[in-house]
Every structure is written in structure tokens, then in C-alpha cells.
Amino acid sequence: MIKRLTILLTAALTLVACSGPRPVATTPGAAATSTGGPAKGGKIVYGLSADANGFNPVTDQFAAQSYSMVTTIIEPLVSVDANGDWKPNLAESLTPNATYDEWTIKVRQGINFTDGLTLTGEIVKSNLEAQQKSPLTSATLQPLEGIELVDPMTVKVKLKQPWVVFPYYLAAQIGMMVPPSTLNNPLGGSRTPVGTGPYIFKEYVPDSRFVVTRNPHYWRDGLPYLDEIEFRILPDTQTRAQSLEAGSLDAIGTTRDEDLAKFGAAKDAYTIHRTQGMAVSEAMFMLNTEVAPMNDVRVRQAMAAAMDRKAIITTLRGGLTKEADSPWTKDSKWYAPGGAPHTYDLAKATSLVKEYEAEKGELKVEVLSTPDPNTMQTVELAQDMWRKAGIDVTIKQADQADLINRALTGNFTATIWTAFSSPDPDGEYIWLHQAYAKPIGAISLNFSRVKDDELSKALDVGRMNPDESARKQAYATVQKRLRDLVPYIFIDHLDTGAIITKSKLRGIGEQLLPDGEKGLPLTGSPIPYHPFSQLWVNGQ
Amino acid sequence: MIAGRLLRLVVVLLVVTFLSYALLSLLPGDTVTQILGPGASEEARAQLRSELGLDDPLLVRYGVWLGDLVTGDFGTSFVSRLPVAEELAARLPVTIELLVAAQLVALGLAVPMGITAARNAGRWIDQTLTTLSFALLSTPVFVSGVLLILVFAVKWQLLPATGWTPISLDLGWNITSVVLPALTLAFAQVAVYARLLRTDLIATLQEDYITLARARGLSPRRILWRHALRPSAITLITAIGLNLGALIGGAVIVETLFGLPGIGRLIVDSIFSRDYLTVQGGVVLISAGYVLINFAVDLVYAAVDPRIRRA
């Protein structure tokens, strides 16, 4: 028997050895130099944590992982530079009128879709009109009044109100340009994306892989460098990391601190790129300010004061993240200091709980959590902290779909949450403004249902006032009101969202925008994404 | 007999599909939010809900779905907007290959183990194989999968850790991409099959006709392979059919772990995204497959043991 098994095993291994290179996806190394300069050629396999629903920016909801795949083919009108400022991309310029309620968008000359059509003002107009009608984005584009074609390469966007940072919205899904064929056949465009990007669609096997090849007619000279990219969909974080170790992948996205520690220790073999600045999302507990007992600010303050963030970071994040007391990181120009009530103070928390209970009876709170072990650990640790302050906390599990629906309809008291990674604070407008806070049972994009004139007016100033110092002052007010009202108990800035690559894969975080500025290295959360046109493989 | 079986299949499908439809409807969460995201307006949600027929009562929705199913229409996925039948057809070969490979691996390991253990009942080799069986049985699929990846892909770099290559693209790479998933899925089955075969074989080897065969001077090998193994395999064959359900359950985990685009992963993704029609399509496929395979198993009994055929 052992002899037969040995023969079988030998045959299997011989088969493996004789199989030749894996079809579609290989990592044979680039036709590159080893001198450090970008070189053309090579193929990479890139591990993603989730598949996309589809690739049509008008009809399919994009998560961060979708952007990794889609932006290789479809590009936005606008990009964000390394300072967090918007810069033209497919657009040559975006110019506001004096009152910022009109934006004139001029399109660059000579940009072609891979189906041969040239990008024109008419196509930009059609795309923006489709986005305005799309159920995915119509709420965000609510201030948009209409779009006019000024000349063949220029459109004018008319707004119902001043919107000083409107171009930022064109750096994401809303500003991604597809040809008329996609607009006319949304399902076709959803499965077979066409764009102006550095790569051309080659193959898509749902839940398995998405393959793109170099666009030889890309409008940016000399780009892209790689011949082919295979995105492999691997939801399990551990096998994704193991695949990188085993050599099956050249890069992975992760949020696990153990991956950062493990691959960080092998600096010669791997490079870690972590999110920074406004791209970093925040972990928090979101409180429903409309339901008891959270409608009493003392309860919210007590829960915030009982939260020992250092303990969470040390215990669960490997000490890698930083404490948060605001939606924006401390290295952002929008951050305004002022930790209270997000400073750990158990005595204060206990006192507030006693005050509440003397007036209203025993304090009981139900906290929602998704069932994944990492999230549950955070909630359980917080539960223990709140119990020390005298709050009776129970945990209820809800999967992601249930949790989001409960947040929308207000069917929750408190929940673990991750949010706030827009490049500009105005990106958080609909989540914080009282105009978007609806009664319990109705769909409310302001999930915490916090209603505050001062907060909302500050958000309006941030949206409508072009003066940066006025905007900074406005967002300082936003942060102050969030700290006073405590609709969110901020835990930490989740900068463990990272891309880990083999060291031979270069170019992440080094991309230049069309007009020469350095681009924003990583965007999105929890696992970030980045452009692929300037990635290259160093010679071996 | 066949008509009776088919009738039973129809009843099973009706019960299973109604229960799964009802259970999915009870799940909290909202299909429309999954499709449009949290940033969509209430008007857009209401419109899409109406378009998808989600405002209708459960029985009406089930009736419409069943009516379409009878005409061969599995419906259209809420999320991908593709026909469910098309989605299932694309995934089915992967899962079938995985299940068949896992069964072959399981039987390939279990039969020699069961025979060896039975022939050496009570001796050290039997006890060693019994211990090994229990170790395999008690190891969860996600643990054995990760361990196999660690050994064969990370340490020895013999096999790919993840990924899938269809047979149509390259047979060699297809086999390499199915080895670790099939081994992972097969491990728990190996233990069950080996234990069943060992027990039945020990009982058969104590039958009078085996004693008679020995008395007639037949070689132990001939007795084992010609006279003892076939009647001892009945329970094993039953288990193969019944284990299909467990295998499909394991396939869900294995497909996620190894990044295989199979039916199990499609169903799990569809449950999370509340894509009810895709889940229903998967349920129909698995239920029908389960009943049909067990029907085939009944037919195999007769071929294996002539006493059943005569009865």
C-alpha cells in the first residue's frame, strides 16, 4: 500500500512540476533593470478581500476593493494629490464661478476610450446626468441642478447652492467616465468594463479573478509599466497572507496588525504601505441619539469617559493605531484638538451613570456587533469597560446587511462602526447634517440622528465658504460639537489598513498625477486602494 | 419505483424551497440597501423595492418564483442582474469537481486504511489508524485547510495556496489547484469511511461463509477482495450518498478559504447580500442533487450485493 501511495504521490508531484507556468496569472518577473528605475513589462497577482458587484460606476455600488479593479480601466475626472488637494485628471481644468454654484469642467484633448471613442464634453455631460439619476448617487448629488454643454470639450455644472469642494466628488465613483456604450447597456458595462484607463479588460470570473492587460494606446505617455495584472479574490485574511508568503501573490490588502508585524519583520522581502491622513477611517461606537437611554447626553458622555482607548489599542491592535477623538486624524490640517469627553475618566463615567440612574433608573444598553471575531473582541472589551462604570451592557450580533439596515432605520441603541475616510471633511456632510436626520423607522443617512444647529451650520460653511481658514474654523466647530454631543465614541484611527507587497513590486505611493504633482498614496477603507498605472516590477 | 422517487423529489423540493424562501424572508437586513448602499435616498429605495417585487407578500413572491421555476426560469440575481441559471452554471463545474475529487481522495485513503485496520483488528496498526481517524475527524475544515496551505504551499512550495484554474484552460494547473481543497474537504470523510469499512469488514470476516472459504483453502487476499469487501461496502456506499450534504457544507468553507468560485461560495455571498433568488436557485440545485445521488446510491446497492437485487 505504501509503495502504491508513493507512486501516486510521485506522479502527482511530477504532474505539478510538468504543468508549466500557471495560465493567465504568473509572476515571472519583469523585463526590468535592477538599477531602480521603472521598467516596462511583468505581470503581478494582487490579492483582494472581496469581489465587486459589478464594474459600472453608474449602476454598481463600489467598495474600496472594487476601486482597485475598476480604476485600472475606468478613470475619474479628478484626482487627489499627496497633500489631499483635488487636481484635474481626465479634466484639464475645473473652474468655479465667483459664488461657487457653477463649475466649468474642461476635458483634456486626445483621450480615447478603449473602444476607440474620444472623451468629449458631451460624454462627460451624459455621465454626470446618468449619475444624477442613479439611485446610488442621487442623494449625494442632490445640490446638482443641471449640466450644460459649453463647447465640444467643456461642460458647465450648475448647482443649487455653493459647493466649494464639488471636484472632490468627481475623484470617486461619481466622476468616473464610461463611454456611451456602457451608458446605453449598463449590464454589459457592468460585466465588461470599458474606459480610458491604463489597462484593458481581459477576463472576469466572479469570486475568483479579474484580469487586465496593458492599454497600448493609453493617453499618458510611457504608462502603464506592467503588462498584466490579475486580481485574485480571497476573502479569508489568513490564506491571503499565506498566499503572499507562498509566492502565489505579489501583493495583498490587509487590516490585520499581525500581518503588519509579521511582514514588517521581513523588510528585505516585503514592503508595507499604510494609509495616512484623511484616508484613514475611524473605529467608533455610534450611538442613536433619538432612542433611550442614548437620548440623554449624560449616558453618551459616561460611555465615552469609560472607554480606555489605550487598552483597546494595546490589547487588540498590537499598539499600532492611535487614539481618536475626532473624525479626522491628528496629522490632517482639519484636525482641531480637544479630547474631552474622549479622555478616559472612570470616576467621571461612574458619577454620570449614578446621576442618570438616580433620575431614570437602571442604565441598560444593547450594543450591536458584527459576528467576526476581531470586531467582537473590541465590543467585548468595551463591554467590560462600561460594566466597570456601572452600565449593564448586552451585545447583540448582526451581520453586515442587518447592521446597516438597522443603522438606516434607527433600529439600534449603539453599534460598533467604522467611517470617515473622505479626502475632504465635506465628504461626511450627509452623515452628520441634521437635514439628513430622519425619525426612527424612516431612512436616515445621518445614522446617529444627531440634530444640532451649530453643527449643521458649520457643515454648511465648510461646504459653501471657499476661504480655507473659515473652513478650518467651521470644521473645528464640527469637532467641538461632536465632542460635546457624543453621537460617536471614537476609539482609534484605523491606519492598519495597508497594502503589503513583495519588495520587487515598486511604485505604490510614488505615482505622479497628469500635471506632475505627487498623487495621494492610498485611499479608502478598511483596506485601501491605489492607482496601478505606475506600478513596476524590479529586476531579479 | 422511479415514478415514486420522482414524486418524492418534487415534494422534497417544494418543502425545502418554501422553507428556505420563508427563512430568507425572516432574515433581518434589506436587499435594496445591499444593492444601493447606505447613501441612497428613500425614494430610490422605494422604487427599486417595487421593481424587484419585494413589497409583495411572501406567498405571492414564492408563487411567482415557483411559477417561473416550472418553466425553467430560475430568475435574475438582484445583485449581478444576471440570470441565476447562468450564475449557477458557471459555478457548478467547480463545486462538482471539488466534491468528486474530495470523495475520490477520501475513498482512496479510507479503503486501504479500513482494510488494514480490519485485518489487524486490535493490533497496534489498528489502534494507530483509529487514533489517526479520530484526529482527522475532530479537526475542523478551516484548521486542516490552513495547515495544508502552510505545509504544502508556504513551507514546501509544492502546490498553489489559493486560486483556481478551470480544466478548459489547463489540466495540469487545474489538478494542482484542486489538490489542497480536495484534501482538506476529504479529511473528515476519510475518518468516517475508514471506521465504517473497518467495522463492517470485521463483522463480515466472522461470517460462516468466510470460514468456509478459509477451510476450502482460498488465499486471504482472495477472500478479502472477492468475498468480504463487496458486502462490507453497503454502509460505506450509503454514507457516501448521505455525506453529500456534509461535503457541500464543507465546500462552502473550503471554497472561501482557497478562493474557489463554486456554488457554496455563491450561496454564502448571496445570503450576505440578501440575493434571495440566487440562494433559492442554489437550494434547488443542491436539494435535487442530494435526492438524485441518494437515488443512484440505492441502485448501486443492488449492483454491489446480489442479495439485495434478489430481494
UniProtKB/TrEMBL annotation, chain A:
Keywords (alphabetical) are: Signal
Q: Does the keyword Signal apply?
A: yes
Q: Which Gene3D superfamilies match?
A: Dipeptide-binding Protein, Domain 1, Dipeptide-binding Protein, Domain 3, Periplasmic binding protein-like II
Q: Which GO terms describe its biological process?
A: peptide transport
State if Signal is listed as a keyword.
yes
- The signal peptide here is 1-24
What GO MF terms are annotated? peptide transmembrane transporter activity
Q: Record's Gene Ontology CC terms?
A: ATP-binding cassette (ABC) transporter complex; periplasmic space
Q: In this protein, which residues make up the domain named Solute-binding protein family?
A: 87-431
Q: Which InterPro entries match?
A: Peptide/Ni-bd, SBP_5, SBP_5_dom
Task: Kindly provide the name given to this protein in its UniProt entry.
Answer: ABC-type transport system substrate-binding protein
Species name for this entry? Answer: Nonomuraea soli
- Native organism taxonomy: Bacteria, Bacillati, Actinomycetota, Actinomycetes, Streptosporangiales
TrEMBL record, chain B:
The protein's name: Peptide/nickel transport system permease protein
PROSITE patterns annotated for this entry?
ABC_TM1 (PS50928)
Q: Which Pfam families match?
A: BPD_transp_1 (PF00528), BPD_transp_1_N (PF19300)
Q: From which organism does this entry originate?
A: Nonomuraea soli
Localization (cell):
Cell membrane
GO CC terms in record? plasma membrane
GO process terms (BP): transmembrane transport
Q: How is this protein positioned relative to the membrane?
A: Multi-pass membrane protein
